[in-house]
Design brief:
Elements: H1 2-17, E1 22-23, E2 26-27, H2 31-55, H3 64-67, E3 77-80, H4 83-94, H5 98-120, E4 132-135, H6 141-157
Helix pairs in contact: 1-2, 4-5
């Protein structure tokens, strides 16, 4: 589908910009080209996150906790769960084996952190940038949503400084 192709296109651009030698048969250009691609990707992503934040709503990933760190109205939430539960959930959602999901999860966690470190200079695994950490392995989705919505209302009503 078109959304999947767009997502894969973005992933290819990100991996190319990060300087991976090749991905999916595509060769990355020289260092100057890779640096320009990194810069373009950061500028484009930052502008998109800021535009979405101005419009209001929920932004998942995209280094939003870093980009929007100085916005007092933004609530930065880290959704987490025990690794085993994340793997089982990924396997079920993707319709793949637990072994394959475990390999994908390890690579995905590593690549997401590397992207943020290389492109933005911050590590999203560092929890100090988040206002709230929610363990989605201990509560159902509706409860997690209620907690986040309540935290957002509280933060908005009681802004610090």
């Amino acid at each position: 589908n078109a959304q999947q192709r767009e997502k894969e296109g973005l992933l290819t651009r990100v991996l190319d910009a990060m300087g991976f030698a090749s991905f999916g048969g595509l060769d990355v250009g020289d260092v100057a080209s890779a640096q320009r691609d990194q810069y373009d990707l950061v500028v484009e992503n930052t502008a998109q996150v800021e535009q979405w934040a101005d419009a209001g709503g929920v932004i998942v990933g995209r280094n939003g906790a870093f980009i929007l760190a100085d916005r007092p109205e933004a609530l930065h939430v880290l959704l987490d769960a025990p690794l085993e539960q994340r793997i089982a959930r990924a396997a079920q959602e993707a319709g793949i084996s637990s072994e394959r999901a475990a390999k994908r999860q390890k690579n995905e966690d590593r690549i997401r952190a590397e992207m943020s470190i290389k492109l933005y200079g911050w590590d999203p695994r560092e929890r100090t940038r988040y206002d709230l950490v929610v363990n989605t392995g201990r509560m159902d989705l509706d409860t997690c949503v209620q907690i986040i919505a309540t935290a957002c209302r509280i933060k908005t009503d009681h802004r610090v400084g």
